[in-house]
Amino acid sequence: MPGPVIIITGTPGTGKSTHAQLVANDSPIPLKNINISEYVKENALYENYDEEWQTYTVDEDRLLDNLEPLVAQGSLILDWHTCDVFPERWPDLVVVLTCNHTKLWDRLEKRGYPLKKIQENNEAEIMQVVLEEARSSYPAEIVVELESETSEQLESNVSRIIAWINSWLENHKNS
Length: 175
Ligand SMILES: Nc1ncnc2c1ncn2[C@@H]1O[C@H](COP(=O)(O)OP(=O)(O)O)[C@@H](O)[C@H]1O
Fold this sequence. Notes:
This is Adenylate kinase isoenzyme 6 homolog. By secondary structure, the protein is of the alpha/beta class. The chain has helices at 16-26, 36-42, 60-73, 101-110, 115-126, 129-137, 151-171, and strands at 5-9, 32-35, 46-50, 55-58, 76-79, 93-98, 143-147.
């Protein structure tokens, strides 16, 4: 039986990749962990590279076509800073990570982002852009907001997601 499809989303720097890796490591079943930014680069699923913003313009149609067979197989984590491009039928759980914007600023500065990119992400986090996106794209019962500011929160978030996976498997064991 295929396992669930989990989207982990949030503004860049909120901790998606860190969470996704730990969830994949601790999961009771093997989960394929796809960092969409890396996947886009590796498979050249972009239209161009924007020098000014230091970001790829993703070819969303090709991205979705590429992901569709993987999603059909299930047992998947999709890690990306946006989520509303993914069809409503895809995820079983959408985790939105959030972080205090001052802390986020420090994380993005350490990452060497250009100032305007830090500012843009900082404002997006304050305005809860990704959270709103998730809430308007998926049923409320599958969207969960988790704060990701401390290592204790990281640990408890991962435990919660693992508990959710166990419960999902229990509920789907005959399907
Ligand atoms: N809950 C947390 N507590 C402490 N540090 C964190 C937490 N979540 C992420 N970090 C740190 O913040 C940085 C960005 O995390 P990362 O997982 O790369 O974010 P994203 O994938 O969302 O861009 C990393 O240095 C990571 O170790």
